Amino acid sequence: MVHVGGFSRRCKLARVPITVMGYRCERCSHEWIPKNFKAEPKVCPKCKSPYWNRPRGKAMMTYEDFRTKIQDTLRKAGTDLTWTDIRTTAGLPQAFPNNQWVYRMEKDIGLERQKDKNGIIHWRLK
Question: Higher confidence at residue 11 or residue 75?
């Protein structure tokens, strides 16, 4: 009801959706609107996790899975590949290969790595 000049009048007020940005916890999926937008929240108000804004990590890959993916990718390609090509094709999460695993693959599957004149390392199987 709206009071205009001492009289009461019924009028329909327009309803509109209002969108407000908030936060969602990656751990418990709780959503909230912060009281202070100047600084990012330190913890989730529900579960109190300080990691509310970081997705959960995937389980670590085993050496055997890593070796198999590298071997399959190099066999299918049939040519030398760089680490970036292998990582992209095989869908590997790591930006750089584990050096201990690379040395182990040289013995296990006959992996060879060779630097070209530009310093780019090419991987291949014997």
Answer: 75
Write out the DSSP string of the chain. -EEETTEEE--PPPP-------EE-TTT--EE--S-SSS--SS-TTT--TTTTSPPPPPPPPHHHHHHHHHHHHHHH-S-B-HHHHHHHHT---SS--HHHHHHHHHHT-EEEEE-TTS-EEEEE-
Domains belonging to the chain, first-starting first, are 20-57 (no CATH), 63-125 (1.10.10)
Q: What's the CA angle centered on 121, arms 125 and 100, to 5 degrees?
A: 70
pLDDT in tens, 40-99: 899 999 999 999 988 777 667 899 999 999 999 999 998 999 999 999 999 888 888 989
